Automatic annotation (TrEMBL):
<protein>
    <submittedName>
        <fullName>D-inositol 3-phosphate glycosyltransferase</fullName>
        <ecNumber>2.4.1.250</ecNumber>
    </submittedName>
</protein>
<dbReference type="InterPro" id="IPR028098">
    <property type="entry name" value="Glyco_trans_4-like_N"/>
</dbReference>
<dbReference type="GO" id="GO:0102710">
    <property type="term" value="F:D-inositol-3-phosphate glycosyltransferase activity"/>
</dbReference>
<dbReference type="InterPro" id="IPR001296">
    <property type="entry name" value="Glyco_trans_1"/>
</dbReference>
<dbReference type="GO" id="GO:1903509">
    <property type="term" value="P:liposaccharide metabolic process"/>
</dbReference>
<feature type="domain" description="Glycosyltransferase subfamily 4-like N-terminal">
    <location>
        <begin position="29"/>
        <end position="203"/>
    </location>
</feature>
<dbReference type="GO" id="GO:1901137">
    <property type="term" value="P:carbohydrate derivative biosynthetic process"/>
</dbReference>
<keyword id="KW-0808">Transferase</keyword>
<dbReference type="Pfam" id="PF00534">
    <property type="entry name" value="Glycos_transf_1"/>
</dbReference>
<dbReference type="Pfam" id="PF13439">
    <property type="entry name" value="Glyco_transf_4"/>
</dbReference>
<keyword id="KW-0328">Glycosyltransferase</keyword>
<feature type="domain" description="Glycosyl transferase family 1">
    <location>
        <begin position="214"/>
        <end position="376"/>
    </location>
</feature>
<dbReference type="GO" id="GO:0008610">
    <property type="term" value="P:lipid biosynthetic process"/>
</dbReference>
<dbReference type="InterPro" id="IPR050194">
    <property type="entry name" value="Glycosyltransferase_grp1"/>
</dbReference>
């Protein structure tokens, strides 16, 4: 598509995940990045993009015009303070009513909802204003429940409401092939669904540039929100088999608050039990602009979640020319090529994780070859520019005027 031919008005709806938020906290990660980067790339292609996210702080302005060419509107729905995302369902009617009001003045050509609760609010407004809805789930309640069982704190109604939503929206942009299969099982018509992955900015995340200093000759890096399902425990339990390496875990609260974080305490205890506490370092959250330098300091990035709707970190590592050892689940089945850009291993299996990492640490040439292939793959398929073009093609279809 050409931006000049069809400049669209796009409403991005992301109830809990603001593109302006700091990352690393329990509810701030890939969705924030995806909404920010996709909005910026679409704006750069000439589209008018407004992101609607919940006002979670009284200090926020009603409207922020970002330097990246898109606007963020802070939606008054529920108390203006940080709340766990699992408490937000009750505020979605108010969120939807606010959107409907806004769209009376500024009617978007398409609304793109991120996460199921955004979908509910978006549909409520869109049906009133005749706006087509594209839905990206970023995560599915059925998958979460399957893996987390009673630890899943999602609202009880999630699976029912999400299933209804999946059947009602005009288009589903799934983030990976595996999710398409899940959605089909939920009753989604496959003819109005496609895979639109998340992406990475290959200029920002690049193999060339400074690298953070290491404490040991070899370094494994793992990045993500500090929650059990991210599987940091698996890599820690692999460490006794990897005696020359250190493991750096990035994510969670700021380093100053790490000592009081329950998951950080649990992971440190596991490291102690495994006798590797001196080689496992929890860094807490780091700023986005420090991430490429940190990733470049790794010989291998380990991404070993129990399940993963997409997984942006593996792409960021690949863009930095670093091999990735990833769980063979979800989005990583699409992004990571086993023996090509890294290794795919079964989740929750420390021995297989260590077996996959060992040869990569041992062989500089193998590392370089996997890293080069990873970077090439990202450049070819996963730049946000390309993802934005694919997304805009979906919008064109929805707006009914493919030019
Ligand atoms: N991230 C970050 N700082 C941190 C931890 C994570 O900037 O301390 C970023 C990371 O680089 C990636 C995103 O947060 O861009 C995490 O996305 P991913 O899809 O891997 O995981 P999710 O949070 O969606 O489960």
């Amino acid at each position: 598509m050409s931006a000049q031919k069809s400049r669209r008005r796009i409403a991005m709806v992301s109830e809990h995940a603001s593109p302006l938020a700091l990352l690393g906290g329990v509810d701030a990660g890939g969705q924030n990045v995806a909404v920010a980067e996709l909005s910026a790339a679409l704006a750069a292609q000439g589209h008018e993009v407004v992101v609607y996210t919940r006002r979670d702080d009284t200090d926020l302005l009603d409207r922020v015009d970002t330097e990246h060419g898109y606007t963020v509107v802070h939606v008054p729905a529920g108390p203006p303070r940080k709340l766990p995302k699992d408490d937000l369902l009750q505020y979605m009617p108010a969120f939807g009513d606010f959107l409907a009001e806004q769209w009376e003045q500024w009617r978007p050509d398409v609304a793109h909802a991120h996460f199921w609760m955004s979908g509910l609010a978006t549909l409520r407004a869109a049906r009133r204003r005749g706006v087509p809805v594209v839905q990206t789930f970023h995560a599915l309640g059925v998958v979460k429940r399957r893996h987390q069982g009673r630890d899943d704190t999602s609202p009880d109604e999630r699976i029912r409401l999400e299933t209804e939503l999946a059947r009602k929206v005009d288009w589903v942009a799934a983030t990976c092939t595996d999710e398409v299969a899940e959605l089909r099982r939920m009753g989604r018509d496959q003819s109005a669904m496609s895979v639109v992955p998340c992406g990475v900015n290959p200029t920002e995340f690049c193999h060339i540039g400074p690298a953070a200093t290491r404490g040991k000759p070899q370094r494994i890096v793992s990045v993500g929100r500090l929650v059990p399902r991210k599987g940091f425990e698996t890599v820690i339990r692999a460490m006794p088999q990897l005696p020359t390496a250190e493991l750096v875990i990035v994510g969670g609260p700021d380093k100053s608050e790490l000592d009081s974080d329950a998951e950080a305490q649990r992971l440190n205890a596991v490291a102690g039990q495994c006798g590797v506490a001196d080689r496992v370092h929890l860094y807490g959250a780091i700023a986005r602009d420090e991430m490429p330098m940190l990733l470049r300091s790794a010989d291998v990035v380990a991404a070993t979640p129990w399940y993963e709707p997409f997984g942006i970190v593996p792409l960021e590592a690949m863009a930095c020319g670093v091999p990735v050892v990833a769980s063979a689940v979800g989005g990583m089945l699409d992004t990571v090529v086993d023996e090509g850009t890294g290794r795919l291993v079964p989740p929750r299996d420390p021995r297989r994780c260590a077996d996959a990492i060992t040869p990569i640490l041992a062989d500089r040439n193998l590392r370089a070859a996997l890293g080069r292939a990873g970077r090439a793959r990202v450049q070819q398929r996963y730049s946000w520019q390309r993802v934005a073009e694919e997304t805009a093609a979906v919008y064109d279809r929805m707006a009914g005027s493919v030019s």
